Amino acid sequence: METLDITLADGAGGPAQAPTDYVYGDHREPYQEAGLWGILRVLLPGNTLIKKLGSP
Questions:
Q1: Can you tell me whether residue 40 is helix, strand or coil?
Q2: Domain definitions of the chain by residue range
Q3: Measuring CA to CA, which residue among 22, 26, 27 is closest to residue 39?
Q4: Sequence-separated (6 or more) residues with CB below 8 Å from residue 17
Q5: For the chain, what percentages of helix, strand and coil (3-state, to nearest 5) are there?
Q6: Which helix (H) or strand (E) holds 10?
Q7: Where are the alpha helices (DSSP H) in 1-56?
Q8: How far apart are CA 6 and CA 19, in angstroms?
Q9: Residue 56 has pLDDT above 70, yes or no
Q10: Which of 21, 27, 35, 43 is most buried (CB neighbours < 10 A)?
Q11: How far is CA 26 from CA 4, 5, 33, 37, 44, in A?
Q12: What is the pLDDT of residue 55?
């Protein structure tokens, strides 16, 4: 098992801090089928659409 810690250059959304959904993962078909992908959702500052874990 491996883990990877990533620091985003210029923060989430890049220098423009563009709010959108960013897809990441391994683009080789067998790995995608195995679930090696995800979505990083970047929201505008102050947006409360997504709550922190453990929030009511």
A1: strand
A2: 13-44
A3: 22
A4: 10, 11, 42, 45
A5: 10, 20, 70
A6: none
A7: 29-33
A8: 19
A9: no
A10: 43
A11: 14, 16, 10, 6, 27
A12: 65
In the block, which residue shows the tokens 């080789």? 28
> Distance (Å, rounded) from C-alpha 31 to C-alpha 44?
31
pTM of full prediction above 0.70: no
Quick one: tokens of 36?
A: 């090696």
Q: Is 46 exposed, middle or buried (0-12, 13-18, 19+ CB in 10 A)?
A: exposed
Averaged over 4-14, what is the pLDDT?
A: 85
Contacts for 46 with CB less than 8 Å, ≥ 6 apart: none
CA 4 and chain centroid, separation: 13
